[in-house]
Amino acid sequence: MSAAGPSATSKVTGDAQVEAAILKLCAQNPEGVGNDMVTGPTGPLAHIDLAARVTALNNLLRSSKVALFKQGTQLLYKAAQPQDNRTKGLSAEELLVYQVIKQAGNTGVWTRDLKVRTNLAQPQVTKMLKALEGKSLIKSVKNVNNPSRKLYMLFELEPSREITGGAWYTDQQLDREFIEVLRETCFKLVERQESPHICLTDIAHFINSKGLARVELREEDILTIMETLIADGRIESIEPADEGEPERYRTAVLAVPHSTPFTAIPCGVCPVMDQCCEGSQISPQTCVYYQTWLDF
Question: For residue 266, what are the contacts with CB-CB under 8 A and spacing of at least 6?
Fold first, then answer.
């Protein structure tokens, strides 16, 4: 009786050993393992049959134990983190697109950049994006600074303030009504607290504690509002007397008037005043606005 060939069990064990060798190589090179190191004829795994290495590598990719990255023009393999297990079953192209999007973080990545970084054709990129969106692994967001440009990021991430516009935007639109409400609230807080005068931290704490905004406002957000009130001449800042003390605010001692004697007359705001003279087509005698003002 002839000797029996290798059993299915011994083959699985052999595949597992090749996979273990690839995982060990990835662990030894956390920055990534090039394709030549895994499948090359002179790499550290050259003693293993090439077909066995390719099969093991594909198994690791499908099971999300190894992740595929692109650095420059080179493809790299890295040992996947535990949370990457949800990408189990993705194709090599889907994994590549997913990893590039993951690297972009909460700032997102544009489809054109995806095409460059993955070296995939645009139809392929579009197909991979639809597949990943369908599995709720990624999502698309709009950039307030460029609404026509669609960005992609991981499904669970919140877009950065640079993308959403922060507290001042709602559905990618500048929320002017909210900004004006916030301006009036800040002004009333300054007006109400005379001694000691109110500081930025106190204003931010009050607004956040009252839930006036959809998101928690940072002090730099409130500072932006305060600067608009200063520019309007409604409040002014008080430099701290001692080092380490916060800057405080009070209502403006010399408030900027809404109008001056010159701007109160039609000539003061007339866009063609420099062309106005006696006897010309544009003159005080023919000015309907001047006559209306005199009648008033």
Answer: 287, 289, 290, 293
Q: Where are the domains of the chain?
A: 14-84, 90-164, 166-251, 266-295
Selecting from 3.40.50.2300, 1.10.10.10, 1.20.1300.10, 3.30.565.10, what CATH number does the domain 90-164 have?
A: 1.10.10.10
Percent of the chain with pLDDT over 70: 90
Q: Which residues contact 18 (CB under 8 A, 6 or more apart)?
A: 48, 52, 53, 55, 56
Q: Which long-range contacts (CB under 8 A, 24 or more apart) does 240-248 make?
A: 246/199, 246/200, 246/201, 247/199, 247/200, 248/196, 248/197, 248/198, 248/199
What are residue 248's DSSP bridge partners? 199, 238
Confidence (pLDDT) at 12: 36
